What we know:
mainly beta, three-stranded antiparallel sheet, 44% strand
Amino acid sequence: MAERVPYEEGYFTVPADPAEAPRLLGTRCRACSEHFYPRRATCARCLSDDVEPVALGPRGTLYTHTFLHAVGFGEHKSKLQGYAAGQIDLAEGPRVQAVLVGKPGDFRIGMPMELVLETVAQDKEGRDVVMYRFRPAA
C-alpha cells in the first residue's frame, strides 16, 4: 500500500494504520470550552486567545445534504455525474461541511456519519494524496 499524505496539512489526521479512524484537527477554547473547525487562533464565541489544538470526530450526525450535478473537484469524468455534499454536526459541537461518500438516496437528515479518507491523487513521489469525506456510519 502506498504511503498516504493529506491534501493539505493541518486539517485532518492521516493514521499510519488505514483501519484507524482519521480525525479533524480543530481547537477548543480553554475559557469557554467552545470547539471549532478548522483551527482558530482566537475563540469566535468569547474572543479569548487561550485555545488549544484538539482532534474532533470521527463521528457526527447529518444535519443537511444535497447532490451537486457537477464533476467533483479535481475530476475530469465522474460515473455518478455529480457528488453529494452535506453538513455534519460533530459530537464536540462544530458543524462541518464536507463531500459525502455515496449516491442520491443514500442519505437522510439525522443519520449517523463517519469520517473517512479518500485518495484524490498521487504525488510525484508516488504517495496517495487523501482528502476527508463523510459516509453513512456502519
